[in-house]
Amino acid sequence: MRIVSLCPSLTELVFALGIGRELVACTKFCVHPARGVQKLKKVGGTKDPNLEAIQALRPDIVLMNDEENRREDYQELTEQGLNCYSTMPRTISETASMVRSIAAVLGRAEVGEELAVEIERRSVRVAEAAKDRDPVKFAYLIWMKPWMSVNKDTFAHALLSHAGGVNVFSGREERYPEVSLEELMEASPELILLCTEPFPFQSGHVVDLSVELGLPMDRILVADGELLSWHGARTPDGIDYADSLIRGLLGGAPSAE
Questions:
Q1: Which of 35, 41, 83, 170 is most buried as measured by Cβ atoms within 10 A of its Cβ?
Q2: Contact yes or no for 232/99 (Cβ under 8 A)
Q3: Which residues fall within 8 angstroms of residue 242, CB to CB, at 6 or more apart?
């Protein structure tokens, strides 16, 4: 099978399913696994793929994501006769279902089932543990100038709330709402998470935000955006990572134990 992946997390998933050798191309943003994608042909970005190059590769399937990729690119590729398979999981259970469906399409149902079961196993364990703890109010910031957060219709929200977190901006209408620092202070989160993607937040931003808000630095953390937003192969670790953030095991977060 000849596979083209236009979503970084799906590229990683193909390798996790043991068929990385069947990938013929991916995007320039597909960076995991590093050695696996190094020699793959790059066909542009997630929002601006080279459709002619993809067509020339004559893939059996093109893996896409409803959010990462553009609808018009999906339509054009399908009109060219290519088999495009696009998914959009927003929750842990939807991610397990996505893994099963993609694995089945790629002829790796047994391996996909193992990964899906592991996702579900960790999900149950974390949810059970969260029942015995006080909830932790958090704000998850993905951009600055303007500051932007996430609402309840996002995968990061799903992971963190599953672990006992309460997203202070969950009720916003926009999936990625702009928020002011005044609104952030009024929401009174116990924990502020600065996500490493799409904006590359670093430790220096923690210091700056701490000074600007007048909050102690131990209430602000840089959070691994790949673990909290890449659904698929790293979701099991993402579930545990979200749990550690909410429980205060990674430094900075308030602990309910």
A1: 170
A2: yes
A3: 126, 159, 160, 162, 163, 165, 227, 228
Residue 252 pLDDT exceeds 70: no
- Please provide residue 167's backbone torsions phi and psi, each rounded to the nearest 5 degrees: -75, 115
Dihedral pair phi/psi, residue 207, rounded to 5°: -60, -50
How many angstroms separate the CA atoms of 24 and 41, rounded? Answer: 7
SS3 26: strand
What are the structural domains of the chain?
A: 3-88 (3.40.50.1980), 115-247 (3.40.50.1980)
DSSP tag of 217: G
Distance CA 229, CA 247 (A): 19
Distance, CA of 97 to CA of 234 (rounded, Å): 15
Q: Please name the amino acid found at residue 71.
A: R
The tens digit of pLDDT for each residue in 164-175 reads: 999 999 999 999
What gap in Å lies between CA 222 and CA 230, rounded to an integer? 16
Angle at 47 (CA atoms; ends 139, 59), nearest 5 degrees: 125
Strand order in the sheet with 191-195: 165-167, 136-141, 191-195, 220-223
pLDDT in tens, 227-242: 999 999 999 999 999 9
User: Tokens 């999936």 sit at which residue?
Assistant: 175
Q: How far is CA 173 from the centre of its chain?
A: 20
Is the separation of the CB atoms in 243 and 233 below 8 Å? no
